[in-house]
Specification:
Structural class: alpha+beta
Number of helices: 18
Number of domains: 3
CATH topology of the largest domain: Glycosyltransferase
CATH class of the largest domain: Mainly Alpha
Helix content: 25-40%
Strand order of the largest sheet: 2-6-7-8-14-10-11
Number of strands: 23
Shape: globular
Largest sheet: 7 strands, antiparallel
CATH architecture of the largest domain: Alpha/alpha barrel
Strand content: 15-25%
Distance between the termini: 50 Å
Radius of gyration: 25 Å
Length: about 650
Amino acid sequence: MSKNVEISVKNIHVDDAFWNHRIENAVENVIPYQWRVLNDQQPGAAPSHAVMNFKIAAGLEKGEFYGYVFQDSDLAKWIEAASLSLIYKQDPQVMQNLEDVIGIIEKAQQPDGYLDTHYILKKPDKKWKEIAHGHELYCAGHMLEAAVAYYTVTGSDRLLKVMEKNVDLIRTIFGDEEGKLPSYPGHEEIELALMKAYRVTGQQKYMDLAEYFVNKRGHEPGFFQEESFIENSTRDKTMQKDYHQAHAPIREQKTAEGHAVRAMYYYTGAADVALENGDESLVEALRVLWKNVTNRRMYITGGVGSQGDGERFTIDYDLPNDTCYTETCAAVGMAMWGLRMLKIEPKSEYADVMERALYNNVLSGISEDGEHYFYVNPLMVKPDVANYRSDHISVETKRVRWFGCACCPPNVIRTLCGLGGYIYTQKEDAVYQHLYVGNEAVLSTSQGEIRLSCTSQMPWQGEASVTYHGPQGGKVFFRIPAYAKGFSICKEGNPVVYREENGYALVEGGLEDGCTYTISFEMEAQFILANPRVTEDCAKAAVLRGPLVYCAEEADNGPWLNDFRACLETPAELEKRDLFGGICGLKVSGSRSSMECWDADTLYLPAAKVCGREKASLHLIPYFLWNNRGEGEMLVWMNTEA
């Protein structure tokens, strides 16, 4: 395994026609908006109390803990997002907010390093006794990620020192030595955070603990003897060992099980460990799990987790559209895992999925104004049904300003502000460009510094130009997307020869200093069919164009969308629309029922008496934009004509 070179997110500045306004909105508006929410100062948003919990724990305020057991993590993710936002704007107010809240966290930390406001304020006698569902390690992981981001961007180690003390305490609690707990997190997250800390500090203790948690998972006794685990697993069959991915050691797991966010974070952390220690058995286990997820258990949008009860995976091919969970955080985790697999072995199949998740299920989790969010991302919505039926209880028919369980909103924002980290990976002197997102990047190689300047027309057109400055013969691998037709590379307007390697194109002879390389490919709208084993999608088709999944909305097409039948023989037609600042929509031809014989009181008719069908069309928009024009029906998978 050739050596991975870690690229600092500070060295990649996104400057892209599609992503700019989303990142700018995050920096200018959403970071301050979420700060107000976390401080309970935003009218109309569900109370958070996250900052107040820390103030009370610090002795600065009086009161009681409020919120979920993992409420601390909402603030941690905001700190990470706000830190990353400073890459784009050195905002004095954001910087002051960060300094102030870190000061509060410093005061809230107990002398031995313990830091979790739920247990400090509410259950001081239960510290480290509710590992299965207590989220102490989960919250520590997110705060450690925040500390790494703050240190990376600002150079200040204030929060990193807090979390080092916290990790040092955790190392005295967990382990196989006598007197320690031979256990692992109920909700994985700290593993990937520890690996981030290892990379920025070089301290082996972080990696050792991450490696211990990854490898110990699935071994008994773990947390299986805890009262909370026994109670939950006895009461609810969705909360067994597999809910925690603890039903077997990772090398024995063949299918993705349990809580989808937990699984994605676990696989991400495991990939980080494998990347550093070169453990091929761990890499192979991750390949097996990746294949199961992406080939049998992933939605076309890159979403994972098909069942609301337990927020979890179920069985192969069980992918309902209207009751699916597909949590925004799980899609963030899917993208994170894909990025780690690319660092291990640059193969375009990982980038294809990472890109799909980012452009669809992640972006659908946030409105265009940045202040309304989806926790659950269904692929079919009929509001009157969803608002009534108990099996749709998780499905929101319009985005909300905040959640009581608010893991998703700050997760989306930290992803947007850290998007640059998904564009490239590097193996020794070889650079791989996975996403055609406009950016300015500065990278280091053994031959000297290289600079890449990318402008892109994605996701609306398959064209990007990359200007290279650096040593002669630079090795930059350009991804060939699975959907790309007629892929070509031109240097200063002239075609060049390239060789393909694992779905990437490498220009023969390498890149020349000062030259611009234009990558071009066609992106045809494609009708996609699901494996017949996916019961809910039999005789249905979805439409993809490039990385984007498309959907139909009631706002463009009226109600009863599910009555439409698409004609697969007629290609989808591109429609340039002024919506949302200009998008490429699609028009699909087909038919709808003639309603002449279907009055409101006629529930059934013999087929011979049905009036027939009329020619019709559906106007489609990218899935991530749905529900920005009010509540209404939405449909991704369309019925097809026989």
